[in-house]
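Researcher: Please predict.
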Amino acid sequence: MNSANTTLHTVNKSGLQSGILASCLRIATRGDAILLIEDGVYAVAGCAVGSRLLEEKNSDITLFALREDLQARGLESSVPAQVKLIDYAEFVALTCSHSKTISWF
């Protein structure tokens, strides 16, 4: 994917820690991608608030989670199938394939 009008959103906090994930989901549009990093991975692995927010969002947004952050938290086995797990090299490639990146901290 190499589109001139897509955004990669990186989220490093879970739905329980702040309203960042909800804000990101309000802004993200068709073709965008959301990459959950650091504590953001809790949003898809065992966090009911984050999971509910992600389910409510349109499926036109691709969801990714950084495998190393899931492993560090012991959460890799509890990720739903619709979330694509990526490593650091794929993180770099994902960044390059989007026209802009917004970091939600």
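Model: The first strand starts at residue 3 and ends at 11.
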